[in-house]
Write a structure and sequence with these properties.
142 residues; mainly alpha; 2 strands
Length: 142
């Protein structure tokens, strides 16, 4: 009877997202205890520490020594983290062209236009932020 039903479990990534949100809101490095406090102490400190350690291993947060423990800071903002996740998923694909084509085919018309504008700006060298890695060719748009 001690089994947790699927209804009671948190969605995958929810705890990591909550911890990252606390770090982004802080504006400076936080210890696991400070993250726990920022989250309203809903989680055990050991759970928060485990989540922070996993985020560090994934490259989402940096950590530095503070006394006997660590303090953590986000490496990127929310948009940067989303972009990194998208790139990571794309890197897992053997057929990048098909993956990109399917992604583009599922965009709303507004997002498709935004992507076109960003790609045109990148070609002109006017896009915001650094451009890294190979640029994809034109995708199949609906």
């Amino acid at each position: 009877m001690s089994e947790t039903s699927p209804v009671q479990r948190r969605p995958s990534g929810e705890l990591e997202a909550s911890v990252l949100a606390a770090l982004w809101a802080a504006g400076g490095p936080l210890s696991p205890a400070e993250v726990q406090s920022a989250l309203g102490a809903r989680l055990a400190r050991t759970t928060v520490t485990t989540i922070l350690t996993r985020l560090h291993a994934k490259g989402a947060v940096s950590r530095s020594r503070a006394g006997r423990g660590f303090v953590y800071s986000p490496i990127q903002d929310s948009a940067g983290l989303t972009a990194r996740r998208m790139r990571s998923e794309l890197d897992k694909q053997d057929d990048r062209g098909t993956a990109l084509a399917r992604f583009v085919s599922q965009l709303t018309s507004e997002d498709e236009q935004l992507l076109r504008t960003l790609l045109e700006g990148a070609e002109d060298g006017a896009a915001e932020g650094p451009q890294t890695g190979p640029r994809p060719g034109p995708g199949t748009a609906p």
